[in-house]
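U., I forgot to send this yesterday:
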Amino acid sequence: MVDSFLKYLQFEKRFSSNTVLAYQTDLKQFEEFLTITFPEYKTETSDYGVIRAWIVQLVESEIDSLSINRKIACLRSYYKFLMRQEHIDKDPMMKIKVLKTKKKLPHFVKENDMVKLLDHAQFENSHEGWRDRLIIELFYGTGIRLSELIDLKESKLNLVERTIKVLGKRNKERVIPFGESLVSMIETYRNVRDSEVEVKNHGNLFVTDSGDRCYPMMVYRIVKKYLNLFSSIEKKSPHVLRHSYATHLLDKGAEINAVKDLLGHSSLAATQVYTHNSMDKLKKVFEQAHPKA
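Result:
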């Protein structure tokens, strides 16, 4: 049933390959726990007590709460699947609760540092230089995810309306506007790329110097290289630029539901994590301006 469940996640629920792999690993670990501790049980026949015993063992092993909660989410999905398939008649996860976790505030680049990077960073007048600059500009100018940037097709760019169409999580498409300054940058990058690189037939906007698709580690290195020059934040990654995009929009008064749609979040809760930073700024304004502050 595990194989059927994983296929269900991949083809019907359209979970990402990373999520499917993570769930596969979680179920394998649960099976190993059963083999050693409760050999009379299988995943399909486990009850509340057995599952709780595994969670207790995970906690005692000092595995972080977020990882444990993902394993709990995996089992919840698995047993709901078994219920729908009528392989079990009682859900053993009904009384299982997730662990409390500390809310981690998103890392973001200060607005001034971001402006300095975009205005003063030295990019070579070559395919590599124009590509690297456009990658950073597009991350910060649209808030797209790493996977969305790597998979961005030329056909999904509309320079007249200044929008890009990206395929996000669970194959959900969304349209994102971008600034006028990016139009000429995209056109220049395309011209330089086409004159210097023999692009393979994959239709992607961003390519390596050999014309192949870009890959995650390459983009990580590009972003980290330039953030190192202008920002002192500890974590430097493409996702930090996405966080910066959302935080700066909210700081400037953007409506949270609009930011939610721009980011491609399925719920408002995922976007609200950025309001903490904006609230700090509002508190400073209040303290400086209100007569009773």
